[in-house]
Design a protein that fits this description.
Homodimer, and heterodimer with SH3GLB1. Keywords: Coiled coil, Cytoplasm, SH3 domain. Its main location: cytoplasm. The chain has about 400 residues and is α+β, with helices and mostly antiparallel strands. Helices cover about 60% and strands about 5% of the residues. Strands 4-3-2-1-5 form a five-stranded antiparallel beta sheet, with no helix packed on it. A hairpin with an 8-residue loop joins strand 2 and strand 3. It is elongated and about 130 Å long.
Length: about 400
């Protein structure tokens, strides 16, 4: 390994000079390079972008993966450049448990058959969630992370070079030249120490004057070089800071895509739940399907029905056309969601419409009789908002 003592000493001297210059600037004893207002605005905007992007990125991670242990695991796999092992979502696990429970309870029982339907729906919801998490991570989280670990890191390096190398060198050269100019100007208080003790009639010799002029020329040349390097680095940094506008445009597109993916995910979940509600709704009093068992046996279907629910025989004889509204007890209801009738005994609904509802003795509490003009049929209570 090469060990250059001269280079090490030179670098140490430069570092010490910059530290002294920085300290003097903080104490107000030396000039500091000031940048134009436009550059300062760009710098402030970039710093604001970095801070808020970091907060949005961290919170989005929490929303997509609330489990901190899972987030740490994914972070470690990413740093080790290894693929994250597939992990089932909570919905998929719940669905699997329900399906396994249905096998134990018996798929032919009302509870078992319902567990199969709900468990299958939960598995589909879990699959939709996994797809949403993967798509959101690629379309939204990855661009934010690329900015923080890529573009912003480049900007930070450029700013570090600008402030702690070129600016310090330029400021130090300016102060050397300023000190030399003050030494040549009579009546200045800031003169070299040797002038404070020399006689007033003392005149520099020709060789000393030439040496002083040579040092002044050298300082001015170093100032010119330092100022040129500072201006070049400032221009590079300015271009990087102006690129923040492009970053905002890119993040805007990613944000819109994230919203689209999220809306699609919730729409898909809503669709699955509506389908599940329809499947479970077919077990209403007028269309409940039960296994035929001898009456009074332990598997008698009446054991699985609510107390206020009619027997299958009664539901078969219930004719919607013959049901008359009671003299009192009718109410208005607002429809919350669209509902397509499963058969002719049900009434299709459209969101936000108003209908008249009432109940009749022996009906399941989850269903009501709904009327809209000349149309009549049973409607699920969960789709309605009862009005006073």
């Amino acid at each position: 390994m090469d060990f250059n003592v001269r280079k090490l000493a030179a670098d140490a001297g430069i570092f010490f000079s910059r530290a002294v210059q920085f300290t003097e600037e903080k104490l107000g004893q030396a000039e500091k390079t000031e940048l134009d207002t436009h550059f300062e605005n760009l710098l402030s905007r970039a710093d604001c972008t970095k801070n808020w992007t970091e907060k949005i990125y961290r919170q989005t991670e929490v929303v997509l993966q609330p489990n901190p242990g899972a987030r740490i695991e994914e972070f470690l796999f990413e740093k080790l450049d290894r693929k994250v092992p597939p992990r089932p979502t909570n919905g998929e696990i719940l669905g699997q448990f329900m399906l396994e429970a249905a096998k134990e309870f018996g798929p032919g029982t009302p509870y078992g058959s319902t567990l199969i339907k709900v468990g299958d729906c939960q598995r589909r919801l879990g699959g939709a969630e996994r797809e949403f998490l993967q798509t959101s991570s690629i379309s939204f989280l990855t661009p934010l992370r690329n900015f923080l670990e890529g573009d912003w890191r480049t900007i930070s390096v450029s700013l570090t070079l600008l402030w702690y190398r070129f600016a310090r060198d330029s400021d130090a050269s300016k102060n050397v030249v300023l000190l030399a100019e003050r030494a040549e100007t009579p009546g200045e208080s800031a003169v070299p120490d040797f002038q404070e003790t020399r006689p007033c009639h003392y005149v520099l010799s020709a060789s000393a004057s030439a040496l002083w002029n040579e040092e002044l020329d050298k300082a001015e040349h170093e100032l010119c070089v330092a100022q040129t390097e500072f201006d070049r680095q400032a221009e590079v940094t300015r271009l990087l800071l102006e690129g923040i506008s492009s970053t905002h445009v890119n993040h805007l597109c990613c944000l819109c895509e994230f919203v689209e993916v999220q809306a699609m995910y919730y729409s898909q979940c809503h669709k699955y739940m509506q389908e599940l509600q329809k499947e479970l709704g077919r077990r209403s009093p007028h269309s409940l399907e039960v296994n035929s068992h001898p009456a009074g046996s332990p598997t008698d279907p009446s054991a699985f029905l609510p107390l206020n629910s009619p027997s299958p025989l009664e539901t078969d004889t219930l004719q919607i056309e013959e049901v008359q509204p009671p003299a009192s007890g009718t109410r208005k209801a607002k429809v919350l969601y669209d509902y397509d009738a499963a058969d002719s005994s049900e009434l299709s609904l459209r969101a936000d419409e108003l209908i008249t509802v009432y109940t009749v003795p022996g009906m399941d509490s989850d269903w009501l009789i709904g009327e809209r003009g000349n149309q009549k049929g049973t409607v699920p209570v969960t789709y309605l908002e009862l009005l006073s």
